[in-house]
Design a protein that fits this description.
The chain has one domain: Beta Barrel (Porin). It contains 2 helices and 8 strands, in the order H-H-E-E-E-E-E-E-E-E. The termini are far apart. The radius of gyration is 20 Å and the shape is elongated. It has helices at 2-22, 28-32, and strands at residues 36-41, 46-51, 56-63, 72-83, 86-91, 96-102, 109-116, 121-128. By secondary structure, it is of the alpha+beta class.
Length: 130
């Protein structure tokens, strides 16, 4: 009976290895690259964010309390990265940093917190634009 148990365990390990090597592992970064997301913060400010494959992002201010509606920002000072399955956004060389967690799978929504250099904290939610 011990021999059969060892065979079953070996068989299960082989099946796991086959599964790992035949099915692609999709990371958060893979889900983000090249996609557009609708962002809204707790103040009601709305943006459309386009995540570039090079780790930068472009965003359009759709509705802003500050009055910057319609402005588009696109340069290498706005960056994103995946860190521990979280999305980290850095606006304007780190003036504002956001850490967002996926809410569902596949990753169609994210939620998290942003803080700027002045110490202002706000929540932000992102939804994948299909």
């Amino acid at each position: 009976m011990v021999f059969k148990k060892i065979q079953v365990n070996t068989f299960l390990k082989i099946i796991q290895l086959i599964f790992i090597f035949t099915f692609p592992v999709i990371t958060l970064a893979d889900e983000i690259k090249g996609n557009g997301w609708f962002a809204i913060d707790e103040d009601g400010d709305k943006k459309i964010i386009l995540f570039e494959k090079d780790g930068s992002f472009t965003y359009l201010n759709v509705s802003m309390k500050s009055g910057n509606e319609g402005n588009v920002y696109s340069d290498d000072r706005d960056t994103w990265k995946e860190e521990n399955n979280n999305l980290v956004l850095s606006f304007t060389d780190g003036y504002k940093i956001c850490s967002l967690k996926p809410i569902d799978w596949p990753k169609k929504m994210m939620s998290g917190t942003c803080i700027n250099k002045k110490g202002n904290v706000e929540t932000m939610q992102l939804r994948l634009i299909k």
